[in-house]
Amino acid sequence: MIAEHRTLQAATDRLREQLDEEQEARADLQRQLTRANNEAAAWKQKFESGEGGIRPEEMDELKKKLTARIQDGEAQLEATLAKVVGLEKAKNRSQMEVEALVAEVEKVSGIPFIICCVLCSLVDLT
User: Fold this and answer.
1) Domain ranges for the chain
2) Contact of 5 with 120, CB cutoff 8 Å
3) Cα(45)–Cα(37) distance, rounded to whole angstroms?
4) What is the four-CA torsion angle of 72, 75, 81, 84, rounded to 10 degrees?
5) Would you tell me which of 30, 42, 46, 105 could form a disulfide with 52, CB atoms 3.0–4.6 Å apart?
C-alpha cells in the first residue's frame, strides 16, 4: 500500500511539473501573440499615416506574414491549453487514487494514514 502511495505521489508530482511547464509555455506563447499583434498594429498605423514608406503591395505581404504568425501562435496556444486540460485531469485522477489508497490504508490498519507513515519510517522495512 505504501509503495503504491509513493508511486502515485511521484506520478502526481511529475504531472504537476508537466502542468507547470505547459503553463509557462502557454504564457510564453501568449506573450509572442501579444507582441505580434502589437507589431501588426504599429505597421498598420504607419501604413495608414503614410510614414512607413512602404508600398501597398509590400504592406499586403507583411499583413499576410503577420497573419500567418498570429494564426500559428494561436494554434500553439490552443494545443498547449489542450495539454494543460489533459494534465489537470490526470492530476485529479491521481489525486483521487491517492485519497482512495489513504482511506483504504486507514481502514485496513485502523489508524490514521499519517501515523502509519510515521510508524513505517521508524521501522526498517528492508
Assistant:
1) 2-91
2) no
3) 12
4) -80
5) 46
Q: How far apart are CA 20 and CA 14, in angstroms?
A: 10
Lookup: cell for 15:
504531472
pTM summary value: 0.47
Q: What is the chain's alpha carbon radius of gyration, rounded to the nearest angstrom?
A: 26
Cell numbers placing 5: 502511495
Please state, in angstroms and rounded to a whole number, the distance separating the CA atoms of residues 34 and 70.
9
- For the chain, how far is it from start to end, CA to CA, in angstroms? 15
Give 89's contacts (C-beta < 8 A, 6+ positions apart): none
Q: Who's near 26: CB < 8 A, 6+ residues apart? A: 77, 80, 81, 84
pLDDT in tens, 15-41: 999 999 999 999 999 999 999 999 988
